Amino acid sequence: MKNVIDSFVSLGHWPSAGSFGFNTDILATNPINLSVVLGVLIYFGKGVLNDLLDNRKQRILSTIWNSEELCKGAIEQLERARARLCKVEMEADEYRMNGYSEIEREKVNFINATSDSLERLENYKNETLRFEQQRAINQVRQRVFQQALQGALGTLNSCLNSELHFRTIRANIGILGAMQEITD
């Protein structure tokens, strides 16, 4: 690197050959060269630069306009979604309230139906008990009557002769037939 700098420094010591030559003084030539290059660029590149900037400006404005349209569309969709959400929430509250009242109604109906079923079962139980009691009483009566009849027959058989015995049996059969007709 030092050699490159030394070669530029040594160029400054060349003698000038007439009116045309190299000015090797970097500090003096750079501002002039830069101003010439900038002047040429500004003069010839002004139209191209303006066109590039205008195109860029139009694209930016178009993008902004599209973004604003999208934003408006999104805001409209958001408002519709909010309105729909509010409507759905109201319907959900209504269904919830209807559901609660329906549950209460079903609960009351179930309790009433269960109470009716229990009452019917209790009545059926009571009727069954009365029927079984009546049947037991009738069975006891029949056994008592049979035993009494057997006892009476035994006494009659031992005390009566056969003709009296047959008349008594016929009379008792008549009584039993009448009793059987009454109980049926």
From TrEMBL:
Keywords: ATP synthesis, CF(0), Chloroplast, Hydrogen ion transport, Ion transport, Membrane, Plastid, Thylakoid, Transmembrane, Transmembrane helix, Transport. The chain crosses the membrane at residues 32-49. It is found in: Membrane. It comes from the Eukaryota. It holds the Pfam family ATP-synt_B. GO terms for molecular function: proton transmembrane transporter activity. One of its GO terms (biological process) is proton motive force-driven ATP synthesis. InterPro entries: ATP_synth_b/b'su_bac/chlpt. The keyword Ion transport applies. GO terms for cellular component: proton-transporting ATP synthase complex. It is a single-pass membrane protein. Belongs to the ATPase B chain family. HAMAP family: ATP_synth_b_bprime. F(1)F(0) ATP synthase produces ATP from ADP in the presence of a proton or sodium gradient. F-type ATPases consist of two structural domains, F(1) containing the extramembraneous catalytic core and F(0) containing the membrane proton channel, linked together by a central stalk and a peripheral stalk. During catalysis, ATP synthesis in the catalytic domain of F(1) is coupled via a rotary mechanism of the central stalk subunits to proton translocation. This is ATP synthase CF0 subunit I. It comes from Chamaecostus acaulis. The lineage of its organism: Eukaryota, Viridiplantae, Streptophyta, Embryophyta, Tracheophyta.
